[in-house]
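User: Quick sanity check before I run a bigger batch. Here is a single chain. Can you write out its predicted 3D structure?
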Amino acid sequence: MGAVGIGPEIGGRADSSAVAGRGPATPARRQGADELAIAGITPMSSCDWPGRLVATVFLQGCPWRCTYCHNSAILDPRTPGVVPWAGVRELLARRRGLLDGVVFSGGEPTRQRGVVAAAQEVRDAGFQVGLHTGGAFPPALARVLTHVDWVGFDVKAPARLYDAITRRGGAAQAFASLRLVLDAGVDVQVRTTVDPTVLTSADVAELTAALAAEGVRDHVLQVVRTDGTTSEYRAAHAAVRDRT
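Assistant: Done. Predicted structure follows.
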């Protein structure tokens, strides 16, 4: 969902038995969070949660294979994590008073059960919790929502065009998940990355109207970043650009 960075702040000497000086997490909660497969971390970001300064934790694995994905290295759920959750604890202990919160991104962060325990731990430490999701797993999203302060929700396309972008379907799950978020009353920004190889201006207008009818008040259109995408996608994107 965003670029993965692994910062030098990970691996310092802060006491990893407690996050941000609030005392140790319970053993069960620590175990759940410690099982996370973390693909990378951006230790300080001002763009992953509007109006907040956060650390962004990228979780390994995603069920979709979106045309414009530029984080292909973190798609396979079998790939081991490269950053231990203990390192995130240490980072938060050192950044108390500097960071507003933590954003869990991916990949699709809700596919990992440990994200619930991690979100609880972050909140208990006095930080806010943000979540980037495409809504691929509605039951898993429902479990974590009560521990989340803000959601950045990716809606790829009108339902009939989902498979053309994700190449794995998922429209029903995505829109069911969006309804869960809206019904929960959690602060949410819905984002659509406009893939010009799939979406026309009419498609985008259709989606915008449909989201507004569902109660979405903050819908942001994003431009495709082609860096890190496949050579086939870059060629298709260039061909569309040259025609316009």
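Residues 77 and 204 are 31 Å apart (CA to CA).

User: Great, the batch can go ahead then.
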